[in-house]
């Protein structure tokens, strides 16, 4: 595919940039279509994204765009594509660029020019009557846009600032081929079916209420799921040499000033007044973990200390950003804080990576790694940051792990390795992380006594496996479409008597399953067996159904239907033994 760069030259587009260029050009073509249909529309930002593209539009008073308007906009986009307009590019000095945008009534572009560095090149792309300030690159002709679709509309503040005007954000997606678009739309449709909010309601896992926006309620099935995850977490951490602690949810504001969180995170923190002093509800667990370490002297022989905590944290999120379990205002974070000597650092990072790797393998997740480096608002010296980043690189190289560098996305106190896991629909989620911190031990004056009697400063590692337990449950719901592995499933076996004649035997079967430690639910309703099977498959989603009719009563066995919808006759004791083994091994 040929593309037009902002210096005017045309070249073959690198394969890994094709989708981005197609989407960027689609954003311009969509804006041109909107301008034709709504001549008073004023445009803000319109970038390509990982999932598609969008354009933020300021519409005249009283004018609204909804999804009902998409067919008309898409039809106009197709018309522009058919016109096969040529993309051209030109550059203007700052004053002339401002004059051009003022002349065209583009007040947001004028403001954007004012935000650019003094030495910035200001380039424009044009197709037909439409001109847009842009760095490119773009397609050479509109006819090269083969496959696109508008996907949603929402509100967005100009520059993401709630004090600015709310604009209309029109979202879309585009691909180089129709086949790619069709596959993408198929996955979107599948994602809708797997929406954890929908499945969470159906399976009675969690609920949300207007009385507590962003604060999830876990229902009995959800608590079963959550507790199974935490039992697994505790087992693997105990085996890996971790101890478990618990720290207070509310602590004095001065603690958060010392840790550095107040300066970097105060807008996301809740606070309250106790005894005329300001206290903060913790948004993360690390300062509490530091206080536990600092509570007594330590020898070099005690290190590494690996302290885990399932801590309930609270963070203020904008109401419009809340999204099921994925974005909430309170959640349990499966934190651990490791205090290590310098000579232990590489081995401890390797141990953490291997532990997180084993967790994701358990759930069938693939993942990729990102090394996130020093952000602009960081704490600490250049020397400490260099040491920290080098330590993480060395550990990854010793592990032979591939990784990409994410410049400037580290925590304010140190660089980190992030785990981006891939679910069954190919979507990625950032969950696990290991963060290296030289700063907090300095801020809290942490020490240990070395072999020669001298005082030394430990290095601190922050790490999570699941991340937010609530968010991880949301990911698992969508990954498995509610069809959890047997060890996690809230209902492991659904017992379905065919009629009243088999009900007593079905009760006895259920009692025997429960006595064996298997989570079993008996459906005694006077409904047809076909209805019961369909409801179990679509609502409870158990790994196994036991269908109990007169034949099973007479033979003293059970008919087992698994998720393949195949039904086989089994002796009950043999079935119980197999299920118990499956649960014990967490298959």
UniProtKB/TrEMBL annotation:
Enzyme Commission number(s) of this protein: 6.1.1.3
Cofactor(s) essential for the protein: Zn(2+)
InterPro entries cross-referenced by the UniProt entry: aa-tRNA-synt_IIb, aa-tRNA-synth_II, aa-tRNA-synth_II/BPL/LPL, Anticodon-bd, Anticodon-bd_dom_sf, Thr-tRNA-ligase_IIa, Thr/Ala-tRNA-synth_IIc_edit, ThrRS_anticodon
Record bears the keyword rRNA-binding: no
Span of domain Aminoacyl-transfer RNA synthetases class-II family profile: 220-485
Cofactor note: Binds 1 zinc ion per subunit.
One MF annotation (Gene Ontology) recorded for this entry: threonine-tRNA ligase activity
Compartment annotation: Cytoplasm
Keywords, comma-separated and alphabetical: Aminoacyl-tRNA synthetase, ATP-binding, Cytoplasm, Ligase, Metal-binding, Nucleotide-binding, Protein biosynthesis, RNA-binding, tRNA-binding, Zinc
Residues annotated for Zn(2+) binding in this entry: 286, 337, 462
A Pfam family recorded for this sequence: tRNA-synt_2b
Catalytic activity: tRNA(Thr) + L-threonine + ATP = L-threonyl-tRNA(Thr) + AMP + diphosphate + H(+)
Recorded family membership: Belongs to the class-II aminoacyl-tRNA synthetase family.
PANTHER family: THREONINE--TRNA LIGASE, CHLOROPLASTIC_MITOCHONDRIAL 2 (PTHR11451:SF44), THREONINE-TRNA LIGASE (PTHR11451)
Oligomer and partners: Homodimer.
Name of the protein this chain belongs to: Threonine--tRNA ligase
Record organism: Thermophilibacter provencensis
